[in-house]
């Protein structure tokens, strides 16, 4: 099973896990959150590395991060390894639920599904016609 690490500035990751458990009816396995606030890049690198090691059962780890370009996301990018550790930013509950439901896929396809889950669940019901047409 692919492990999932939610990397956020504060406690948002833990809240997303709690919400996912509420929706799923139980706590998903192989899922951790890491709050980056007030930690040096060196400490973050060590904590991210430990979390990845804990979560990796041989199928890899998907990191879902909040803000691309932030210190903690940039730090996580330094350990990315195709097929072993991937990262998708812009984490949201729809993205997490998509990732949890498709962990049987390869890590690359799971990252693709998670990113699509984030994009496809952004809806502006009263927006321009082009946006309404995209929803189908």
Quick take:
The protein contains six helices and four strands, in the order βαβαβαβααα.
Question: What do these coordinates show?
Answer:
The chain has 136 residues and is an alpha/beta fold. Helix content is 47%, strand content 15%. The protein is built from six helices and four strands. It has a four-stranded parallel β-sheet with strand order 2-1-3-4, sandwiched between helices. It is globular and about 45 Å long.
Topology:
Layout (H helix, E strand, L loop, with lengths): L2 E6 L3 H13 L6 E5 L5 H15 L5 E5 L5 H7 L7 E5 L3 H9 L5 H14 L8 H6 L2
Parallel strand pairs: 1-2, 1-3, 3-4
Helix pairs in contact: 2-3, 4-5
Structural class: alpha/beta
Number of strands: 4
Uncertain ranges: none
The proportion of residues in beta strands is 15-25%
Series of H and E elements:
EHEHEHEHHH
**Fraction of helical residues:** 40-55%
C-alpha Rg (nearest Å): 15 Å
Instruction: State the major sheet.
Output: 4 strands, parallel
The DSSP helix count reads 6
Query: Shape from CA axes?
Result: globular
**Distance linking N and C termini:** 32 Å
Mean pLDDT, nearest integer?
Answer: 93
Strand order of the largest sheet: 2-1-3-4
């Amino acid at each position: 099973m692919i492990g999932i690490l939610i990397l956020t500035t504060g406690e948002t990751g833990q809240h997303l896990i709690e919400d996912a458990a509420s929706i799923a009816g139980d706590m998903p396995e192989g899922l951790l959150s890491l709050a980056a606030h007030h930690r040096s890049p060196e400490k973050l690198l060590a904590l991210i590395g430990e979390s990845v090691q804990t979560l990796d059962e041989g199928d890899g780890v998907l990191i879902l991060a909040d803000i691309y370009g932030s210190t903690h996301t940039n730090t996580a990018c330094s350990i990315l390894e195709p097929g072993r550790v991937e990262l998708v930013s812009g984490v949201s509950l729809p993205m997490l639920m998509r990732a949890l439901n498709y962990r049987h896929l390869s890590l690359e396809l799971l990252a693709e599904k998670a990113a699509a889950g984030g994009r496809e669940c952004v809806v502006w019901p009263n927006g321009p016609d082009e946006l309404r047409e995209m929803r189908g």
